[in-house]
Predict the structure.
Amino acid sequence: MLLITHDFTDPYFNLASEEYFLRESDDEIIYLWRNENAVIVGKHQNTIEEVNQHYIDEHGIKVVRRLTGGGAVFHDINNINYSVILKYEKGLFSNYGLFTKPICEYLNTLGVAAELNGRNDITIEGLKFSGNAQAVVDGRIMHHGTLLFSSNQSDIEGALKPSKLKIESKGVKSVRSRVTNISSHLAKTMTTEEFMSGLYDFFKRTLPECTPYSLSSKDVEAIQKLADSKYSTWNWNYGNSPKYELSVQKKYDFGLVDVRLNVASGVIKDIKIFGDYFAVKDIAEIETALAGCPHNPDAVGRVLDSFIIDKYISHMSSEELTHLITCM
């Protein structure tokens, strides 16, 4: 069994590394890693339902879709992620007690009473600090989870509080729980690095078969290639969302604009723009041009920049309409 950790904090790279280890390695693996600020959405979720896009853009937070199901979670440098990859055997999938037991045991050594609560959360005094999920790929199982050590609570709340949009989709909705940081329950002050190092040593001590492993240049190159081609792309992180219908309205000084659209595979299939605004030209021209356009700010902006928007919605700019259509 390989015991892996490293200093890479790019969430695109780290989510790609999980898939790389899952698909390309035959070894059993325990993997500890951290991300810079990011929202990690579940495989089956509709991304725009889960994030506050304006907050994310304003704070430079990345959005990445993972391979496993479940709800959206926030990562920052003071959250530790652990991944366990094994050969799949009957009884492993959904056996969260087995995979979370070492985490609870390590916390017990620090005087913290942690326990598995419900299906896949680890809690302290009923407060969640760890969400866990699993995936089975090509005869191998990956279990991974978050460990909130001293994460910024305002960023968690801001990034995971989506705008009040009317969205109908088949995406899996997140269930928000009251969360806590591990650091708040320790008798002795520790840094995130000290906690992570202690967990690494705990695995080495309690699992003698563990062999420390450092990423090779070949590993890094392959992971980065996967990050660039998949995990950093709009198609994977937003376009891979389930089909959804979106209704968003906003009141401006010049009137109300009401946008209704259907999106499938990340592409606008049809769109209608209503409101009590004034116009010189028929808004249907813009609606027709947007059909078939990816539902992202760059693509929508390029389409709208070919129109003088003020002629279609008096006093509105291309940027304002782009932001409204893409829920920014």
Remarks:
- The chain is about 35% helix and 30% strand.
